[in-house]
Amino acid sequence: MGDKSLKEQSMENTDVNQDELILQQQRRIEKEISESIALVGEKESLKSLEQEYAKDDIYLSKAKVLAQKYSYIRRTRPDGNCFFRAFSYAYLEKLIGNKEEYDKFRDLALKSKDNLVALGFPQFTVEDFHDTFMEVIDKVGGDTESSHMELHKLFNEQGYSDYVVVYLRLITSGQLQRDADFYQHFIEGDRTITEFCHQEVEPMYKESDHIHIIAMSSALGTGVRVRYMDRGAGTEVTAHDFPEGAIPSVHLLYRPGHYDILYP
Amino acid sequence: MSTPARRRLMRDFKRLQEDPPTGVSGAPTDNNIMIWNAVIFGPHDTPFEDGTFKLTIEFTEEYPNKPPTVRFVSKMFHPNVYADGGICLDILQNRWSPTYDVSAILTSIQSLLSDPNPNSPANSMAAQLYKENRREYEKRVKACVEQSFVD
To answer: Which candidate among A80, A180, B40, B121 keeps its CA 20 to 30 Å from the CA of A96?
Structure first.
């Protein structure tokens, strides 16, 4: 390019900051959602799902099938963190009544920080999330009705709730990186596992896929059953267990793009 | 009032004081911990060398779950810096991780000065000159460096 054409161009940088415009719009949408839907809602009868789909034959028939297998649903806010939030709520809720598994999980959680630091995560910031994660676990430790109330309260306080999600994302990322050879096969494109973790696992509000669920449940040594409900043919609400063959301690309902909690 | 964001920012500040990375500094403004002023010194062996570039960092209560807004206050000529001082850097947008702290943000911006990414331009003129006319690019950058002494 010659000098002349350069001079003809404006000397000022007139490019529009597109990133900022996109971010602004995204924030508006998020605000609308956060004002209308609780982070974690109350337990509702599965009938509420049938009412939701009263005018939608395909979903209605699947909601009825689901109601034969489950009694309650607990909705979570669709903010991209729903898998991690739904799982951690449902799992901690389950542990309230199970001292043995609770102690095992608390021990695993306690040791997890050093494992992450050993993998190269920055100690300074991981510590912050880990402290809050342990605080939440300790606060719901008793086998009482108040533990249930405390759990619900903490999970609806953004500060606690989001820190739990962040920490689970870090545990998931750690597991993916530790077993990179295995998980690499599931990554599309030519991204490395580390890149994938930086783009799809660690950032908040990024939706979870099978790979997240497998890695997280393997890291925590527990099982998750996901029921899939979509517009596909048939009336079945297909179940997938993660990791394969594990006994599920948590049941989640997946509708395209979103996870809620199910109770038998 | 202590919120997770404010608590974390106090920690970030403490760490920045106790273990300051080379070539960057930052501190909250006097009356508001959510707004910081920062300085990045132009890295050696780059056209930005000797420059002292001022920035502002604005946090929301969602920090560290969401990145802060970082802006150069000093005039910049760089492929990834917008006219308003906004910075096009993946970790400040879609690759933000809650494990980053202020120290990590500033050092990432510092390395962006050394290694611009002309394929994702925020200033197309700077990106074009960087790729096609390095001498002119460096001349423009030098002008910003000199300007940064005056600001």
So the answer is: A80
